[in-house]
Amino acid sequence: MAILEIKEIGINFGGLRAVDNFSLQIDSHELAGLIGPNGAGKTTVFNMLTGVYEPTDGKIMLNGVELNGKKCSDISKLGVARTFQNIRLFKDLTVLDNVKIGMGNQVDYGLFSGIFKLPKYFKQEEQMNKKAVELLKVFDLDQYVNVHASNLPYGKQRELEIVRALASNPKLLLLDEPAAGMNPQETADLMYLIKKIRDEFDIAILLIEHDMNLVMGICEKITVLNYGRILANGNASEIQNNREVIKAYLGD
């Protein structure tokens, strides 16, 4: 059953057609990859899926609900979460507080209760603290609960950003170059982590990544983007042996 349906979306920036006629379907519990050379339009696609940009044309559907024109916060509440190519943690806040920020789409105690610290405020804060610690335990990050995010090792900062995204209870998780800057051992650990997330949280995952070992090792379906258009679709073997894909990456 499809959780995400992208139907021929495109976007213009002035006279530039950054993405054109892009279609993709992701099923529940599927782990898919979006790859392509630098500047192919991959992050632009993520920005359209999360409401940062609105497509010039085409439709994006999540569980049958159209996302076009919706605010980022509304799309988050509908079940889309993402990480970023460049880590965007609140580095002066603790690990615990970073995860709790990811739960912002679930808070309903209101400004008045928050200012005056009414019982509803304390009840929800206690629930959020408990949930955040439970999430951190899943990824062996609970030992860093009171550590500032800036003091975490690089690989742990990457993991924390993923945990923060999961805190929003997503149905679809978008990972933008999660292995960027990681060493081989960290990347191997990340491959295990991504599969663990998909299975334990029962969500669909779409990732952008330049590390082909990671992409080919875990993605069940791969879409190749080049100059804003789809170049190829297929499984790892089909993509690895596609001459047009090889040409796009390596030249003639």
Structure description:
The chain has 252 residues and is an alpha/beta fold. The chain has a domain at 2-89 and 165-250: P-loop containing nucleotide triphosphate hydrolases (Rossmann fold), CATH 3.40.50.300. 40% of the residues lie in helices and 25% in strands. The protein has helices spanning 42-49, 72-78, 95-101, 110-116, 119-138, 154-166, 184-201, 212-218, 236-240, 243-250; strands at 2-13, 16-27, 31-35, 57-62, 65-66, 80-82, 172-176, 204-208, 221-226, 229-234. The strands form 2 sheets. Strands 6-7-8-3-9-10 form a 6-stranded mixed sheet, sandwiched between helices. Strands 2-1-4-5 form a 4-stranded antiparallel sheet, covered by helices on one side. The longest helix is centred in the middle third of the chain and has 20 residues, at 119-138. The mean pLDDT is 93.
